[in-house]
Amino acid sequence: MTETASRPTLEAVAARAGVSRATASRVVNGGDGVREPLVERVRRAVEELGYVPNQAARSLVTRRHDAVAVVIAEPETRVFADPFFGLQLRGISKELTAHDSQLVLLLTEGRDDHARVGRYLAGGHVDGALVFSLHLDDPLPELIHGAGVPTVFGGRPDWGDGARRAVYVDSDNRGGAREAVRHLVGLGRTRVAHITGALDQTSAVDRLDGFRDVMGDADPRLVVEGDFTPAGGERAMRELLERCPDVDAVFAANDLTASGALRVLRERGRRVPDDVAVIGFDDMLPVAEQTDPPLTTVRQDIEEMGRLMARLLLRDLDRRAGKQGADGGPAGVVLPTTLVRRVSA
Amino acid sequence: MTETASRPTLEAVAARAGVSRATASRVVNGGDGVREPLVERVRRAVEELGYVPNQAARSLVTRRHDAVAVVIAEPETRVFADPFFGLQLRGISKELTAHDSQLVLLLTEGRDDHARVGRYLAGGHVDGALVFSLHLDDPLPELIHGAGVPTVFGGRPDWGDGARRAVYVDSDNRGGAREAVRHLVGLGRTRVAHITGALDQTSAVDRLDGFRDVMGDADPRLVVEGDFTPAGGERAMRELLERCPDVDAVFAANDLTASGALRVLRERGRRVPDDVAVIGFDDMLPVAEQTDPPLTTVRQDIEEMGRLMARLLLRDLDRRAGKQGADGGPAGVVLPTTLVRRVSA
DNA sequence: TGTCGGTCGGGGAGCGCTCTCAGCGCGTGC
DNA sequence: GCACGCGCTGAGAGCGCTCCCCGACCGACA
Q1: Cβ of A252 less than 7 A from strand C
Q2: Which pLDDT band, with edges at 50, 70 and 90, does A160 fall under?
Q3: What is the DSSP string of B225-257?
Q4: Cα–Cα dist A251/A90, whole Å
Q5: Within 7 Å: CB of A56 and strand C?
Q6: Strand C bases, protein C-beta under 7 A
Q7: CA–CA separation, B263 and B10 (whole Å)
Q8: Are strands A296-300 and A337-340 parallel, antiparallel or unpaired?
Q9: pLDDT band at A4, cuts 50/70/90?
């Protein structure tokens, strides 16, 4: 049962429908400029033969692949510990499917892999790329830029000093942080602390900036560095309690961090939100709803981010195909966040 | 900056190296049977020109694609709420990368999408498929079987009555469940309950079977149906406490379920593990380590499952390519689980 | 009814590659 | 010294498809 029963070709379809290969091709590709009765006959032949176009042959001449690479360049195992990428993938997948494009997933293990990804993208196997590279100093954006593949980034990429213009989609990390902190201040809290995320990621930096927008640099001891993990949150919370026992509110860089902080607070007998109010970021459901008490947090619509990334890329691709030249599109799209009030603040 | 500066072809490489296209091709594909000096010259030409083979042209003649589809057929949004698939993907990705194969991700939204996936697989765009379809009565396995694509399933697929032979990789759900329940019994618990997973999934059924292997059908009221979610766990736990107030141990079908059960137990003032011991399944880190108290659970090596799936598929593919005919490989590979003792039991 | 314009269909080239096959050159054995 | 054979290289066909271009056909108008 090897597939020696080779799949039917366009030729076969044409023969069966009694038309030429070209006509069959036209029908398969939309049927414009072919009279209805013929269209019908070809359609039936396709049906009967179970014809499926050979994508390789098609790509060879059209130079299109109807495929988009999704590059997730996260060295940490952390990546999939949260549903973040999964949700983005879902959004991306939906959009690509609607556009008859395939999703080629490229996961990298550490920086050595970057070269492989660069080579793949430069190899012209895909029409475009969606890239998640949220780390400062990451060589990947530069590499990809060099590959000359249409790309949309997930999260604001760090271009170092050379302010390169790139299309990206990001959450309003800074604005969301501001809203969270303002909420805490509005609650009458005066000693508001921030446990940052891993500061080699733009999202962490942006959230810290948002915090500072509201709080200024008043008391630098109120800012402790975390790393987006629960363990980091615990560590930071302990340090915070030691430094500033009078802290009455904490804005954690993400929900995982908040969950760690919450645990330490409980352990130390601080009541949440009575003694210390806590806000997270992400609204990562399995975490935010399961903490004790349920976490007030800043929600970002992750799936929508993915969908938007795909949409921007596809639009760019279509535009290029249409020779409509210069991309007047936006460099960055920033999605709004919303504060979700639960119990912790 | 359109890519009109079309990429160099083999022809160009051959010309530059002063050899024929055939020889250049041989070198690019390993260089067997070409004398060293020529190999060297071709290599240099490739380097200088930045030549990358056109995969479409290659596939057209070889009928190989060096690509594998990963099908995740989960209607629920639940899918990515847990890191399960992410970890599997990581394992799969590693293995495929090592084999120079690409990963084409197919996410389906509900059953309507099944047809699309079937068509894609039947279309011969990929060399093989890794399929996650863990639901009873799912038409997908049948569909894929019909497509005639080499496939490895993740999780034991349900073939209904027709006991079809398929290659799959699964955790030892039944054995793991047995170990968990035995552990509870070993703790001296006599009223051991089970909150099942969604019973339309083979994993849930297998875990229930494991529970019964140890406990028999003694008291059917001790088995409550859950759905793998925290909310389901809460609901089931409430029902359980009502039915059997004397319950002194709970084996939950997964960690999420356990976390819900834990919450209800705390709310009702039952101490864990003193009054009621609780065991989960999965060892889903962000959950199991964060519960209060930390969860004793059955760990499965998820990434390894993914890696193994890929390895089995690639081996099958290589074998077919080598014309070594009939696959003597195993129908199913079941990975062992280990009990991870934390505090809850 | 004849002719012209517009539209639709068919033939053929060629995308970049692999692979078969023939041929050439060299070494070896008698 | 000649014939045979083996190992390496090159020429060419063709994978399945799209798209260009020309020829044919049909309808309409005079």
Answers
A1: no
A2: low
A3: ---SSHHHHHHHHHHHHHH-TT--EEEESSHHH
A4: 29
A5: no
A6: 7-12, 14-20
A7: 65
A8: antiparallel
A9: very low
